[in-house]
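Example for tutorial group B:
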């Protein structure tokens, strides 16, 4: 057991190493986000203040800062502004996500739509996105503007694609990967590529960091989706079953449907066609997941993307920054927070 905890500490250290390496800039990112969310409209202020208090890992902002540092960016504060921009895009999508999923809890606290309402949450999410576009224009780099605006468009399309396939337990793995690539991996890819654009790197380095970010994002989302059904892990601050109760079809359910017998397949279809699922149905799903070793199968698939992410950084010279980003792939798969 001790060796498992030791491994967890080592894995989480890669996140803290990245955070510590850009700590001074991350504080400025937080200040920038706070200043950009200022509003004279009372409700906007209340909701954005509450959102800021819920915190978060700031992983996408860290990736922008870390990638810029890897590429030797030292010219100014554009990395801070764009890291804040990337983080605000993420925040906006979470607000919209919670409305679509009827989410009630995020990061252990009530969601905005639960406290206020869906209309307010959608509009405040839109407010965040409009602030992002102001920041992109202020930056003045056409390549950055094209990248982040197209990323926002892809995230929205990913949301619609997920909605289109809601409740489909026979969803193709290919469709699932399209959804998480658009919803999650695109923003990871943009965050890392921005660092290379700011540093005026060559196409090879830009593409390498974009590829790294995309595969890191895929690993991160597969791990997140798998975690929702992993009853063996009690260390996580996340309560299991959220995706199940919301009726989301993710990789564990897709793999389970592929392996189940005809009776189990029918049961899966019935459970996910309902508007509300109960605890006994969740226990049934967990028992099937253990029976077919689905968690193991999900992690095996995620490892493929870990390897792709790590190998893509080979175009960069060995450095502390490169080492931290390489190690971060393990954090994305096996984090305990």
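The residue assignment follows.
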């Amino acid at each position: 057991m001790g060796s498992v905890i030791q491994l967890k500490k080592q894995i989480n250290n890669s996140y803290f190493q990245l955070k510590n390496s850009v700590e001074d800039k991350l504080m400025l990112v937080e200040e920038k986000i706070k200043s950009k969310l200022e509003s004279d409209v009372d409700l906007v202020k209340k909701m954005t203040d509450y959102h800021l208090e819920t915190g978060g890992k700031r992983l996408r902002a860290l990736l922008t800062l870390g990638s810029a540092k890897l590429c030797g960016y030292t010219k100014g504060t554009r990395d801070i502004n764009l890291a804040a921009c990337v983080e605000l895009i993420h925040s906006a999508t979470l607000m919209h996500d919670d409305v679509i999923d009827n989410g009630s809890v995020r990061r252990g606290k009530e969601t905005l739509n639960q406290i206020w309402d869906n209309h307010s949450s959608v509009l405040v999410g839109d407010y965040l996105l409009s602030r992002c576009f102001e920041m992109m224009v202020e930056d003045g780099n056409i390549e950055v503007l094209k990248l982040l605006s197209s990323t926002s468009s892809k995230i929205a399309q990913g949301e619609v694609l997920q909605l289109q396939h809601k409740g489909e337990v026979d969803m193709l793995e290919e469709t699932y990967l399209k959804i998480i690539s658009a919803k999650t991996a695109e923003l990871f890819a943009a965050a890392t590529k921005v660092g290379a654009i700011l540093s005026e790197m060559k196409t090879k380095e830009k593409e390498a960091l974009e590829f790294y970010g995309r595969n890191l994002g895929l690993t991160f989302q597969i791990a997140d989706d798998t975690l929702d059904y992993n009853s063996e892990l009690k260390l996580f601050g996340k309560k299991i079953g959220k995706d199940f109760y919301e009726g989301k079809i993710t990789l564990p359910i897709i793999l389970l449907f592929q392996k189940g017998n005809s009776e189990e397949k029918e049961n899966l279809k019935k459970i996910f066609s309902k508007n509300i699922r109960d605890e006994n149905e969740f226990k049934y799903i967990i028992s099937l997941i253990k029976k077919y070793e689905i968690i193991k199968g999900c992690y095996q698939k995620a490892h493929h993307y870990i390897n792709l992410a790590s190998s893509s950084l080979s175009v960069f010279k060995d450095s502390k920054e490169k080492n931290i980003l390489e190690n971060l792939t393990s954090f994305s798969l096996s984090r305990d927070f």
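Residues 1-8 have pLDDT under 50 and may be disordered. Compare this with the pattern of hydrophobic and polar residues in the output above.
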